[in-house]
Amino acid sequence: MMTIMHLPLCRLPQATSLPLKAVRRRQPLHLQTHSTTKLHSNMTTQETILSKPLRRWLRLSPIICMMNKYLTLFFCIILYILSYISSQNGLTLLPALSLVFIAILLYRLEKRSTGEILNLRGLLALGLFGGEGIACLKLSNLSTNWSDTTWFSFFCFYFCFYAMHELIGYVRKAPAKITMSPFIADIKTSQPQTAASSNVSKQRFFQYTISGLLIITWVTFTVEACVLGFIPLFTHNMPHAYSYFHVHGVHYFTTLSVLIPALTLLYLFEKYPSLPSRDLLCLLKKEPIAALGFVLPVLLTILLVSRSQFLFTVLLALFTLILSGRNFRIWQYLLLGASLIIVYSLITVARAHSVQYLNGIFDMKNRNMPIFITQPYMYIANNYDNFNLMTQNLSVHSYGLKMFYPLFTLSGLKFFIPALNAQFPAFVTKTELTTVTLLYDAWYDFGMAGIIILAAFLGAISAFITQKHAENKNPLIRLLYAQVAFYFIFSFFTIWFSLTSTWFYMLISLGLYVAFALIERRVYR
After folding, report:
1. pLDDT at residue 90 above 80?
2. Which H or E run includes 459?
3. Which of the two residues, 293 and 233, has the higher pLDDT score?
4. Residue 126 neighbours by CB under 8 Å, 6+ apart
5. How far apart are the first and last CA of the chain?
């Protein structure tokens, strides 16, 4: 039988008389262990001396929490309707502040219920409603008043997504705290040699995976550079060099480098389970594979002059770090943010985008607004205006040809059925500003029905990944979770789930997840 001593201990406060709920707030669900049962027994002992009304309140507290949750959702719905009404009456600041408040409130609600900083429903609210609030400021002459369809589309998408996520959660009923399966835990305690060989197998799995991906990405990058005859970083007077650096079928493997730093962190945490985040840099001298896994992928994104690839690489690693239970101090987050801004700005300069060029495109109402404000604003706000323009001018839907394009590409169907490669007009406010929101292709394909279909699909997927992450049986689930978290928090930016590269990364990650599970099963067979 599995005992308390066989399981890893949480970092609990010394005073064990704290209520269990207070301790759980300190950690995400997937990091809680069965050692908290000691606290539960202490709490049970304490409850026997509590007054009868207080014991009744403790029994009713889950119901009260659920009521508070749905009351908060109802309040957000009312606030969204008020934002819509005020915007239709020509106001800008009030709906902007209301939508940003809705985003923060929903994120806070989900963080309190899950204990996760990177909770998927909260991140989607921050990305979608937060971006919508910023867009409501209408600081550019390209901004227009949105139609009723635009407002209802974003409202319907999020709350349909929320409902499906909630439904799947009730159906599957994931355990609140599991660190490992009882079968494997018993074997690990009774057969230390088997456990040791399992650790070696897992470490070798990560080493081979990281090495293989490094070789693949740099070989394919070299092939592309030789075929195309240039490297984006070393071009001059070519603002969109990265857009032309693309060999069909090869570039997907070049950009696989975005997964390597996150995999490197999983490798280090698998080999050094108690490793704090502050000691990561010290390990690079002892772990050359880890040093290469951090440096080479970032260097590759700089050579490609791709800001999106750079942000994806760094944030995917950061999200994996947080999901693994590690964290930084506030000053470390600020330092990391400042470093990201500096590198992002340098890549922008390398892309030959002058301030005059960008200001001419953005067409801001206030011509004196600094570029470090106008550029991030337009990369958020104009996407909603593009969506609004599409809903007003689209006359014929594409009926799945846009949303299912990754399936046609990865399966090879598009090479045998030319009709699947049909081109559709892009509805954008300016030809240079082509980024759109997560909902764009869904509405383009099926209108409001497409919005509901996409919301239900993503709600089911995110619920499944959240529950697998809570079980904490396979570290590769953190890689999948981190990718979805990134797509949700940047849901204002593009049609992530209609991109072939998105599904290529997720399929590779899923393959690694299955391979890791098979290795563990083979060792303990």
Report:
1. yes
2. helix 448-471
3. 293
4. 103, 104, 106, 107, 489
5. 18
Helix (H) or strand (E) holding 452: helix 448-471
- Distance between CA atoms of residues 483 and 479, nearest Å: 6
Q: Assess contact for 297 and 257: CB atoms under 8 A.
A: yes
| C-alpha triplet 101, 103, 104: angle, nearest 5° | 65
Q: Looking at beta carbons, which pairs linking 212-216 to residues 24 or more positions away fall under 8 Å?
A: 213/256, 213/257, 213/259, 213/260, 213/263, 214/257, 214/260, 214/292, 214/293, 214/296, 214/297, 216/253, 216/256
- State both tokens at 292: 């290469």
* Residue 369 burial class via C-beta count within 10 angstroms: exposed 0-12, middle 13-18, buried 19 and up: middle
Task: Let me know: does 157 contact 443? Beta carbons within 8 Å.
Answer: no
Per residue in 164-197, pLDDT (tens digit) is: 999 987 776 644 444 444 434 444 444 555 556 6
Query: What are the residues facing 364 on neighbouring strands?
Result: 140
320: helix, coil or strand?
Answer: helix
Cα separation of 140 and 365, whole Å? 5
The closest alpha carbon to 303, from 233, 248, 367, 224, belongs to: 233
How many of the other CB atoms lie within 10 Å of CB of 409? Answer: 21
pTM for the full model? 0.83
Q: Is 337 helix (H, G, I), strand (E, B) or coil?
A: helix
Supply 468's token pair: 């697998």
Contacts (Cβ under 8 Å, ≥6 apart) of 76: 102, 105, 106
Judged by DSSP in three states, 472 sits in coil
The 3-state DSSP class for residue 3 equals coil
C-alpha dihedral (324, 11, 472, 105), degrees to nearest 10 = -70
From the list 259, 248, 260, the residue with the least C-alpha distance to 220 is 248
**Distance, CA of 460 to CA of 454 (rounded, Å):** 10
Please state the length of the chain. 525
User: DSSP letter string over 4-66?
Assistant: GGGSPPP---S-TTS-HHHHHTTS-GGG--TTHHHHHHHHHHHHTTS-HHHHHHHHHHHHHHH
What's the CA gap between 81 and 217, in Å, rounded? 48
Strand partners, 140: 364
427-441: average pLDDT: 91
Number of neighbours of residue 282 by Cβ within 10 angstroms: 9
Distance, in Å, from the CA atom of 358 to the CA atom of 372, rounded to the nearest integer, reads: 11
Sign of CA dihedral 190, 193, 196, 200: negative
Domain boundaries in the chain?
Answer: 196-321+328-353
Of all residues in the chain, what percent carry a pLDDT higher than 90? 49
- Distance (Å, whole) CA 124 – CA 451: 15
Task: Assign 3-class secondary structure to 244-303.
Answer: HCCCCCCHHHHHHHHHHHHHHHHHHHHHCCCCCHHHHHHHCCCCHHHHHHHHHHHHHHHH
